[in-house]
Amino acid sequence: MSRLEGRRILSRRALLARWWVLPVAGTVGAFGYMGWYGSRVLLGKQRAGAPQFVSGQPQRVAAISELAQDWAEVNFTYDKRPCTVLRIPRAVPGGLNLGQTHYVAYSRICTHLGCTVNLVRDPEVLAFAFNYRPPPDANHPQLGCRCHYSVFDPLQAGEAVFGKANGPLPRVRLERRGNDLYATGIEPAPKLGD
Ligand code: FES
Q: Which atom of ligand 1 is nearest to the CA of 117?
């Protein structure tokens, strides 16, 4: 046997002796990625805190009669940003309370990369399309972004509760004027990706 052939046989043997390295490295990498992804989509979300409204031009956004029951919604544009006003079953920080009736309004620009969020009413859609099953005490409509499946809870002041978005949706300040709701200010647009 020539020297060259001998070396080839040796390196083939060395390769065969280490066949397990690739699958083990792949498995470790996959579990590492799953751990990182799981913590990224569920943990480390920013809290909404007290609202930091910046006053703007007052603008009528809806008649109160258009929001006749809980989870009624009206979309509008304010400060050149798509927004939504919702009637909700309980008070949230930054919302408007008229007796026992509560409203809140949010920018619909997702704080991940700027797609538009929409109200998702069906919990099964949240479970299957967004891979998110809210806890029993949060089993109500959520604002969802279909770009990368982030979910924001309207009853937690618009905080991100699932997905790649970390920051809460900016809130819009509401006022009642006669039979209408007006927007009179909005929280600053966050840096996307924060
Ligand atoms: S832009 Fe909304 S989740 Fe990415």
A: 2
Distance from residue 193's CA to the centre of ligand 1 (Å): 9
Give the atom of ligand 1 at the shortest distance from the alpha carbon of 192.
1
Phi-psi sector, 32: left (phi>0), alpha (psi -120 to 50), beta: alpha
Q: Indicate the burial class of 94 (C-beta count within 10 angstroms; 0-12, 13-18, 19 or more).
A: buried
Which tens digit of pLDDT belongs to each residue from 88-147? 999 999 999 999 999 999 999 999 999 999 999 999 999 999 999 999 989 999 999 999
Burial of 44 (0-12, 13-18, 19+ CB in 10 A): exposed
Rounded to 5°, angle at Cα 121 from 90 and 136: 60
Ligand 1 residue neighbourhood (C-beta within 6 Å): 110, 112-115, 145, 147-148, 150, 163-165
